[in-house]
Specification:
Blueprint: H1 2-18, H2 23-30, H3 36-41, H4 49-58, H5 65-78, E1 79-81, H6 82-85, H7 90-103, E2 106-111, H8 122-136, H9 142-152, E3 162-168, H10 169-173, H11 179-192, E4 198-203, E5 217-220, E6 224-228, E7 232-236, H12 239-254, H13 259-279
Parallel strand pairs: 2-3, 3-4
Antiparallel strand pairs: 1-7, 2-5, 5-6, 6-7
Helix pairs in contact: 1-5, 4-5, 7-9, 8-9, 11-13
Length: 281
């Protein structure tokens, strides 16, 4: 993201230089603080749409405005803070994801910690959304968010879409909800693993990794990589990033178990949960 901001700043500096303006002259003409031009050009401050329009007009480069705005909006897309994305509640972000889903034909996802959203039961999803509400102090529209997430699962039954999920055995055992909710979630995974257009791989604890499971990510066709951090959602659209993450996914998928072997790993985790529930531990 910093490199993209710096590249935009360099292009803006180039336009100012071609126009024969100093940074101070441009700032005065735009009624900006004297330091703003330097901060933008050096990638220390992200310009707004208005800044781009003003810059292009004052440097006689109005024809460049559209391309500059495209660069800016790509930059904004790359790093979308959760506090901003969820400021209106959980439901709007789920709607945005649904729009992406409609355009995507091949979904590839690796998750080392959390069950992929489109595979979640309603109660597991509720537990995950509850954490978001607590952490980000956003409006509580959890019922609507759960409803939209469950509706998304209708895609799993569409013949024009394909899904390849890879999860770790740890994902099956992390305590992110009550044992009862997790047991129902694991039972759901067993059923989903038998679907024709869903490929579910599980990397067992005894597996030798080629690539460490550093973090989860989603690949949407050959168009986008989505990575979630604690503070933001990263959207990567550069061809080299897509190719890189595609290679990482293939290496993780290559060591995963599928079919009956994957179901055996899930069933072991489910049996352990059932024994715990029965014992009341």
């Amino acid at each position: 993201m910093q490199e993209a901001r710096r590249a935009l700043g360099l292009r803006l500096r180039e336009l100012r230089t071609i126009a024969g303006l100093t940074g101070r002259q441009l700032a005065e003409a735009a009624a900006w603080p004297a330091s703003k031009v330097s901060k933008v050009e050096n990638g220390r401050q992200t310009p707004t749409d208005g800044d781009i329009h003003t810059w292009s007009q004052l440097t006689g480069a109005a024809a460049e405005a559209e391309a500059l705005l495209a660069s800016l909006h790509t930059l904004e897309l790359q790093h979308a803070e959760w506090s901003r994305q969820l400021s209106a509640g959980l439901r709007p972000h789920q709607d945005e994801i649904a729009d992406l889903d409609a355009r995507t034909r091949l979904f590839r996802a690796f998750e080392p910690v959390v069950i992929p959203g489109i595979l979640q039961t309603a109660e597991y999803a509720r537990a995950r959304f509850a954490q978001s509400i607590t952490v980000f102090k956003v409006p509580n529209d959890i019922d609507e968010a759960v409803r939209v997430r469950v509706q998304r699962q209708e895609m799993l039954y569409r013949s024009d879409k394909r899904f390849h999920f890879v999860i770790t055995e740890a994902t099956l055992r992390y305590r992110l909800c009550s044992p009862e909710i997790m047991a129902a979630q694991l039972d759901r995974l067993v059923a989903l693993s038998a679907m024709r257009n869903v490929r579910l791989g599980v990397i067992g604890f005894g597996t030798q990794y080629v690539v460490a499971p550093a973090h989860g990510f989603w690949l949407l066709d050959q168009e986008r990589v989505m990575v979630e951090t604690f503070s933001a959602e990263l959207n990567l659209a550069q061809p080299q990033e897509i190719e890189f993450y595609g290679s990482i996914f293939e290496q993780l998928a290559a060591v995963a178990s599928y079919g009956s072997a994957a179901r055996a790993i899930i069933t072991r985790a489910l049996d352990d949960l059932a024994a715990e529930i029965e014992s009341g531990v």
